[in-house]
Amino acid sequence: MNSKLCKHFDETGWRDQGKRHYVWLACCEQATVYMIDRHISSKAFFKLFTANPDHVSAVTDRYAVYSIFKVHQYCLAHFIREFHNYAEREGPDKAIGRALENELKKACHIHKKYREEKISLAQRNRRIGHVKKKLEFHLEDGMANGSDDLFKLSETLLDDFDKLWAFTKIRGMEPTNNLAERDLRKLVVWRRKSYGTRSNRGKRFVERITTIAQTLKRQSKSILTFIQEAVIGFYNRTSAPFISEAFGF
Questions:
Q1: Do residue 85 and residue 143 come from a single domain?
Q2: pLDDT tens across 64-87, in order?
Q3: Cβ atoms of 184 and 12 closer than 8 Å
Q4: What is the pLDDT of residues 155-174, one digit of tens each?
């Protein structure tokens, strides 16, 4: 994974031979890689990720395994969903959760307008600056007046406040992990239809065919043509086609 493109990482459950497994995913604008492993741990993650984390800009959820990245963006969509749940409660959490949800939605909307070239970079940064101040105020309110779990979440986000805004400093970085979540949906649907896999060979097939298909789809290339060339190369003992340089494969 030597590309300078921003990387997105995520994981979800899987079943193999009736036992709990996990699908790990790494993707960027040009490629997607899937890996199925028995464990959800840093050891498993480093089977997928082998680069220097100091040289990678990453967008992820808050899972502790991803804390290794020097340039790290938390997925704002993840927190929008969390604060929406608080907004549906009664008591102080309701108003605080709604305010936090609205400010994060506003940040995503502002960045979308910038991405669509409807506002300039300076305008985006100025508007995001106002959102940051309001969000910080509401997080402090969550610590002072929220429930115990809202207090803990607010405290964590204030400690990691810069990780909510890395996208404002890195060109091409997004404030959400939607790219990875969309790619994971393919395996979620596969799991529901097939109930997982039943062998190591089956796991390797799922990993490879989904990696190939999603990467080629992202590059608007023909999946069938690639598979035909790969089969011909296998039987003729020639080099297999190369699908992407984005992750070095």
A1: yes
A2: 999 999 999 999 999 999 999 999
A3: yes
A4: 999 999 999 999 999 999 99
Q: Domain range spanning residue 97?
A: 76-161
**Could you say which of 161, 196, 216 is where a domain stops?**
161
Q: Residue type for 77, please?
A: A
97-101 LR contacts (CB < 8 Å, sep 24+) = 97/150, 99/134, 99/138, 99/141, 100/135, 100/138, 100/139, 100/142
Distant-in-sequence, close-in-space partners of 34: CB < 8 Å, separation ≥ 6: 23, 24, 25, 187, 206, 207, 210, 211, 214
Please choose, from the candidates 57, 50, 23, the residue with its C-alpha nearest in 3D space to the C-alpha of residue 175: 57
Answer whether residue 1 is part of any domain. Answer: no
Q: Read off the tokens for 69.
A: 């990245």
Contact 167, 107 (CB under 8 A): no
Residue 216 has pLDDT above 70, yes or no: yes
pTM for the full model?
Answer: 0.89
**Strand blocks (E) in 38-165:** 57-60, 71-74
